[in-house]
Design brief:
single chain, 432 residues, alpha/beta, Aspartate Aminotransferase, domain 1, Aspartate Aminotransferase, domain 2, 7-stranded mixed β-sheet, 4-stranded antiparallel β-sheet, 15 helices, 34% helix, 13% strand, globular
Length: 432
């Protein structure tokens, strides 16, 4: 190989045809939406203690079907997983000046949700191979103010709930599981979402299945389920007629799912198993195809767990590769084509994931609610750079993710991805 064989320097790329778009919509969803439109009832929710307080027939059916699939006693639909996390923390009684242990490596709401109740997020570093919060780092973070733990099943890998729940039980803490990226993943035979006290799933358009926007919270605790129902739908209006005696956090929102969204989500739920299995198959082929490259490795799957692969994460060793991660990935992307319909986003292989959440201005400037720095002002919790060294190292140097493994990818598409990595690895000396 010479330098000009690499597409980055003008050579012929491995692939010029766009990768297939991940689109899970079909005739079933079309018929479901038309059924709801023909009924004339796009939403049946009422923000008062009436028969419509719990929503319409599509919403209620989705909640029942989701609970059965996940293995939970109750499911509560909301308009987004972000709303689900807020509702879950509210139901758990989190309030002003409480502290909630959170992950620094997820979509930002996984850490900012406590702020909606005036609580302070406390960031826990992550495990170096699974990228989930590390229970070994958690004990030292607990104070008399700690109320809850919000753990994320990042990329589709369940967090170490054996360790997390042991700590929570000892300290009397509520555990919220952000399972947005992990439908059908399991730990010890239990589904993601049921590993803590409340689990939250996403039906956002980028997830395994979706209804555009939407979320589902699940729990085996009837009291928590009812309080989530109250908070999602104007709790203050229903608390009196329901004779609620504990009014903690019963200032409600409108976080309700529509009948249209629920009808689509029900169709999508029936497709979930084959979609996840195809992802697993494509990821296994990619992992096997790259294992011969000594500078790239898959971190692994937790013992007694299964992975649902929202993204496929790898670790990059710049020393063994003798080239920087970003330069190497730039060359890989040059060998491939973007995804059809998402051409402006480029080839979906990228270094890092999201920046550590505590780097956001809201934490660096300690300014959230109002003008006086609440709830940070009277808290000793810090957000300095270097706070979570493992996550910073992963983000800046080691971790990279691929979206080119979803259920629309055929075996030949996966082969092209693997071929591109091997080609660049062979020619990496020209990238220095």
């Amino acid at each position: 190989m010479n330098k000009h064989d690499l597409a980055l320097f003008g050579g012929n790329p491995v692939r010029t045809t766009p990768f297939p778009r991940y689109n899970t919509m079909g005739q079933e969803e079309r018929e479901a939406v038309l059924r709801v439109i023909d009924s004339g009832d796009l939403s049946k929710f009422m923000g008062a203690w009436t028969d419509g307080f719990y929503g319409g027939p599509e919403v209620r059916a989705l909640e029942e079907e989701w609970a059965v699939e996940i293995g939970a006693e109750r499911a509560v639909s909301v308009n987004s997983a972000s709303s689900g996390l807020i509702v879950a923390l509210g139901a758990a009684g989190v309030g002003p000046h409480d502290e909630v242990i959170v992950s620094p490596y997820s979509m930002c709401i996984s850490a900012t949700a406590p702020l909606f109740w005036g609580a302070v997020p406390v960031f826990c570093d992550v495990e170096p191979d699974t990228y989930c919060v590390d229970p070994a780092e958690m004990e030292a973070l607990i104070t008399p103010r700690t109320k809850a733990i919000l753990a994320v099943d990042i990329f589709g890998q369940p967090a170490d709930f054996d360790g997390i729940m042991e700590i929570a039980d000892r300290h009397g803490l509520i555990v919220i599981e952000d399972a947005a990226q992990a439908p059908l993943a399991e730990l010890h035979g239990k589904r993601a979402g049921t590993l803590g006290h409340i689990g939250v799933f996403s039906l956002n358009c980028h997830k395994h299945i979706h209804c555009g926007e939407g979320g589902i919270a699940v729990t085996n605790d009837e009291r928590l389920a009812e309080r989530m129902c109250l908070i999602r739908n104007h709790a203050e209006a229903a608390a009196g007629p329901r004779h609620e005696t504990d009014l903690t956090n019963l200032v409600g929102y409108n976080m309700r799912m529509t009948e249209l969204e629920a009808s689509v989500a029900r169709c999508q739920l029936r497709k979930l198993h084959p979609l996840v299995e195809t992802r697993r198959s494509n990821c296994a082929a990619t992992i096997e195809g790259l294992e011969a490259l000594p500078g790239i490795r898959f971190g692994g799957i937790r013992e007694n767990a299964s992975h649902s692969f929202y993204l496929l994460p790898f670790l990059f060793d710049e020393i063994r590769a003798e080239v920087g991660r970003e330069r190497f990935l730039e060359a890989v992307r040059a060998e491939l084509a973007p995804t059809r319909g998402r051409e402006k986003e480029g080839v979906k292989i990228y270094g890092g994931y999201v920046q550590p959440i505590y780097w956001l201005p809201i934490f660096q400037q300690r300014m959230a609610l109002g003008r006086n720095g609440f709830p940070f002002a009277d808290s000793g919790v810090g957000y300095e750079r270097g706070l979570c060294p493992t996550v910073e190292r992963l983000h800046l140097k080691e971790l990279f993710c691929s979206d080119l493994m979803h259920a629309a990818m055929a075996a030949t598409d996966v082969e092209d991805v693997v071929t591109a990595f091997h080609k660049v690895w062979e020619g990496r000396s020209f990238l220095k």
